[in-house]
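Quick one, probably user error.
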């Protein structure tokens, strides 16, 4: 008899789970339930859509239901899983189109329920033109406002990745953009101040009005439409408000059944098992084991969900998996107008939050030998490294330049995942060609600088 696997959630974790199941097993029957209407929108591609850099909004997705024509795969959108009965090994599912409820049995249940965007708990959230920056429906609404000439002022709440993307798309659409955040600088949870200072100045040069340390008290307006964002720094005129103030786990429906921590993250063990037999949890609604921090931390990234899904399905039918999940580094990248950065592992903010002691080093140079002028492709490059002050084990790093050096972030990720030391990075054997880099590669030089070595000649 075929083993029945139910998957909750059609984003990266759910998609990868189907791919892995089909690649590894034959006698299985797969059903994926997705509460949303659209399977499955890639919110990380929203900026590209808003800037008219995609073929079509309906193509900004991981997969379509028809991507899996196999008879043993059933993908049902508009179907919300509302309850688990672990004793009977069933889930209760509501068809959101007709309200019909059914009870479906499983042999294995994979939870990839993801996260929901946060709305500020303030008055005025119900006003028209107050939007969230996530999902297909919100993307199309924001797009219509960017194309509306009557919309002049757009206020973005939150200066993380999503907020920066929203601000850039709105500026490129010709809007006056105000960017607000409660912390002291844009991207402050991702990058240290040496890098955020550069990006903040660049955002201002591009016309983004930045206000930090802002405490928002309400959204206000007339005729049920937002007109102002009210705060401790005054009222900001707003035809549209885009909230990008973080996410929260989509786990309210699991309370009392699946073990959650105090913030609502699903508790799973080193094999990604929950407290319920044959029920597993992966992706953004869980805490991921960080190789750098050596503990579980919140890392909401597609790459994390996919790696967890690959591991989980590989060991799904083992009574006790042969090895625990190896953990993740947590790497990401972003373009901010003319600048590009990538970061991997820990930084000052995340290390402090995780209780990890770090040392750091900031390095500034040019991409290529100094005899190449800047206007011939030799821009400034910046590297921040983080490492254990006693062992010199690499714990994190970031690179930034107007030239796209983001692939160096993958080098850092590999070094961190293999627990290399600063000394290893200082001596790593990379290529040299003056059309691309220096006699020592950028990360070699940054590591040598971190070790306090005499600076290599720029000539």
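Nope, works fine. Designed sequence:
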């Amino acid at each position: 008899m075929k083993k029945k696997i139910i998957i909750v959630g059609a984003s990266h974790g759910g998609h990868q789970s189907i791919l892995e199941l089909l690649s590894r097993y034959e006698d299985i029957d797969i059903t994926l339930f997705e509460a949303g209407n659209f399977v499955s929108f890639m919110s990380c591609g929203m900026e590209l859509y808003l800037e008219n850099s995609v073929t079509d909004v309906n193509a900004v997705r991981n997969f379509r239901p028809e991507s899996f024509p196999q008879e043993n795969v059933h993908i049902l959108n508009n179907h919300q899983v509302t309850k688990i009965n672990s004793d009977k090994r069933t889930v209760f599912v509501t068809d959101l189109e007709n309200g019909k409820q059914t009870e479906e049995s499983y042999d294995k249940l994979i939870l990839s329920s993801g996260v929901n965007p946060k709305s500020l708990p303030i008055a005025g959230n119900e006003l028209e033109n107050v939007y969230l920056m996530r999902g297909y429906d919100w993307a199309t609404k924001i797009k219509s406002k960017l194309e509306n000439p009557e919309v002049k002022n757009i206020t973005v709440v939150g200066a993380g990745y999503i907020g920066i993307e929203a601000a850039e798309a709105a500026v490129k659409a010709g809007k006056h953009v105000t960017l607000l955040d409660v912390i002291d600088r844009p991207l402050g949870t991702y990058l240290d101040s040496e890098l955020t200072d550069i990006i903040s100045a660049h955002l201002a040069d591009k016309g983004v009005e930045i206000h930090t340390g802002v405490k928002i008290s309400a959204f206000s307006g007339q005729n049920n439409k937002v007109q102002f964002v009210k705060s401790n720094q005054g009222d900001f005129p707003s035809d549209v408000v885009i909230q990008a103030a973080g996410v929260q786990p989509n786990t309210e429906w699991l309370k009392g059944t699946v073990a959650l921590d105090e913030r609502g993250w699903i508790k799973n063990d080193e094999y990604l098992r929950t407290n319920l037999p044959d029920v597993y949890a992966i992706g953004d609604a869980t805490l991921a084991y960080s190789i750098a921090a050596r503990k579980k931390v919140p890392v909401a990234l597609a790459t994390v969900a996919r790696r967890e899904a690959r591991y989980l399905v590989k060991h799904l039918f083992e009574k006790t998996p042969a090895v625990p999940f190896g953990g993740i580094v947590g790497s990401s990248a972003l373009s901010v107008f003319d600048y590009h950065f990538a970061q991997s592992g820990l930084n000052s903010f995340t290390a402090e939050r995780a209780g990890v002691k770090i040392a750091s080093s900031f390095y500034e140079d040019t991409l290529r030998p100094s005899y190449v002028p800047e206007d011939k492709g030799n821009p400034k490059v910046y590297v921040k490294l983080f490492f254990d002050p006693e062992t010199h084990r690499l714990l994190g790093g970031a690179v930034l330049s107007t030239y796209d050096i983001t692939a160096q972030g993958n080098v850092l990720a590999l070094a961190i995942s293999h627990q290399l030391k600063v000394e290893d990075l200082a001596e790593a054997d990379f290529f040299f060609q003056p059309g691309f880099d220096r006699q020592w590669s950028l990360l070699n030089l940054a590591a040598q600088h971190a070790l306090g070595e005499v600076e290599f000649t720029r000539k």
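The chain has a mean pLDDT of 96.
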